[in-house]
Amino acid sequence: MAKEHKEIVAIGMAGEERYPLAPFAEIFEQAREAGLHLVHHAGEDAGPGSIREALEIGKTERIGHGIRILEDPALTADVAASRIALEVCPSSNVALGLVPTLAEHPLPRLVDAGLTVTLNTDVPDVTGTTLTGEFSQAREIFGYPDRELATFATNAVTASFAPEDTKTALCKEIDTWLASEANA
Hints:
By secondary structure, this protein is an alpha/beta fold.
């Protein structure tokens, strides 16, 4: 089916992370063979075991959320070394009650652990936050300077499934923005 629908580039499991991925292993393999990418939510509500399962059974190329990865130092080191991006959504994590406040969000600890972090928004109808809002909050709450905000954006572009020429052009735009902010 994926071969028939060229606009589909990835599939993944989202929602209840405690539900096992094993029953879908064959589907994931078929999707990979068809040229699709795999991205799964893991480590948001469920612990690090869900991240391991997403990596080992789900063959995920990015991890949706992943904020509980720090509970397993070995897994943290493995994911950091492999440069698998975490799609971190602070406002969503707070709105869903998984983190008490934005100030207590593990975002800085994820960055400090050497993980590839992207900054994202999720369930905007619930959070009332846009992607721009997430970046603004990261600056205001955690004091991230332009360079770190640019790193989040560059990580997102690099972890995307866009064509390489598109990635190159977007990263150049981010670099241009960063240079213009430095000269402002």
